[in-house]
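Structure ticket #2291
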Amino acid sequence: MQCFVSVGSNVEKEKNIAAGLNSLRETFGKLRISPIYETAAIGFAGDDFYNLVINFETALNAHEVFEILRELEFKHGRVKNSQKFSPRALDLDLLLYGNEIIENETLKLPRLDIEKYLFVLQPLADIAPNLAHPVLQKTYAEMLVSLSESIGNSSLKVVPLPIMESTKICPPT
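Resolution: structure written out below.
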């Protein structure tokens, strides 16, 4: 199944993003990754975040992927029971699991952040512009145009980092 995961950090960003990408590659294999964007913290006063989206294929079910992502967050310094809007060494959010629509106490897919936050939608649209949202039936490129028009996109800044080289992961072509 095709999975898309949002990756973010605002604590030792370069180190934690690189380490997180390496752990994700070791766990799930080949990754496609978006450009990295720098954005201001939302919901709290804190350092800026680095955000990106990755894509991989897996035979695991959505709940297994979710649990692995949580364990990787803890492995990379996330504090258990931390508040939603707080500093993060590594934040891994499952955005999409194929075209599955899942809503239960543990998991809600597709993740609503896709519709709300430019720092999630922009990198998703970078690597899957023609993929359609399972509920809205609009492509991520179309959704990006709408969201950019309503909130503007000046808050995103591409970050040229050597993370791509250090993780041995090639960007999409």
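Closing remark: The chain has six helices and eight strands.
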